[in-house]
Amino acid sequence: MKSITIKGSERESVGKVATKALRNAGMVPCVLYGGDQPVHFAAEAKSFKNLVYTPNVHTVVIELAGAKYEAILQDIQFDPVSDRILHIDFYQLHADKEITMDVPVKVVGSAKGVLAGGVLRLNQRKLKVRALPANLPDFVEANVTNLEMGNKLYITSLETPNFKLLHADNTVVAQVRISRAALKAAQEAAKAEKTAAKGKKK
């Protein structure tokens, strides 16, 4: 999985006054969990742009006064009015410990049912994955090539090298539905066939 580096500085004070001052200065207060004890730090709001405002997922390298921590974003709080970032929680990664995170689904191939006039519906845009940090995928590939009209792609059909998917076996990842136009055409064809059959009987 790709990584983004966030450079910050440890916070000496974590009170409300100090936190407000940080935000007014364009900084975001953060906490890193998962180590021996929580690490409170702050970083410039603009440094989170490629981490937060993207459909992709990344691990994070947090640099604090020479120390480096590999982590993932665990929780984020936004201002309900301005939508600016108020606070971020990170969780430290350890090479020998599995981690769980949501990873986007990437559709691959052209479904046969779509080529026949159907509509592809992606039921799951993200899937919960569990793996060692080194094995975390950038995305989970969903190959829809063999999906005919009305077919569904279940989670059990996905390839999961070096990671686990934490979903029930009957979870539908994608499906091909008959489009309104195709349904109307099928109904009209059936109607015409019925009318023709009645004509022959006469």
From TrEMBL:
SUPFAM superfamilies: Ribosomal protein L25-like. Coiled coil: none annotated. Residues 98-178 form the Large ribosomal subunit protein bL25 beta domain. One of its GO terms (cellular component) is ribosome. It holds the Pfam family Ribosomal_L25p. InterPro entries: Rbsml_bL25/Gln-tRNA_synth_N, Ribosomal_bL25/Gln-tRNA_synth, Ribosomal_bL25_b-dom, Ribosomal_bL25_C, Ribosomal_bL25_long, Ribosomal_L25_dom, Ribosomal_uL5_bac-type. Keywords: Ribonucleoprotein, Ribosomal protein, RNA-binding, rRNA-binding. It comes from the Bacteria. Residues 6-90 form the Large ribosomal subunit protein bL25 L25 domain. HAMAP family: Ribosomal_bL25_CTC. PANTHER family: RIBOSOMAL PROTEIN L25/GLN-TRNA SYNTHETASE, ANTI-CODON-BINDING DOMAIN-CONTAINING PROTEIN, RIBOSOMAL PROTEIN L25_GLN-TRNA SYNTHETASE, ANTI-CODON-BINDING DOMAIN-CONTAINING PROTEIN. This is one of the proteins that binds to the 5S RNA in the ribosome where it forms part of the central protuberance. Part of the 50S ribosomal subunit; part of the 5S rRNA/L5/L18/L25 subcomplex. Contacts the 5S rRNA. Binds to the 5S rRNA independently of L5 and L18. Belongs to the bacterial ribosomal protein bL25 family. CTC subfamily. This is Large ribosomal subunit protein bL25. It comes from Flavobacterium agricola.
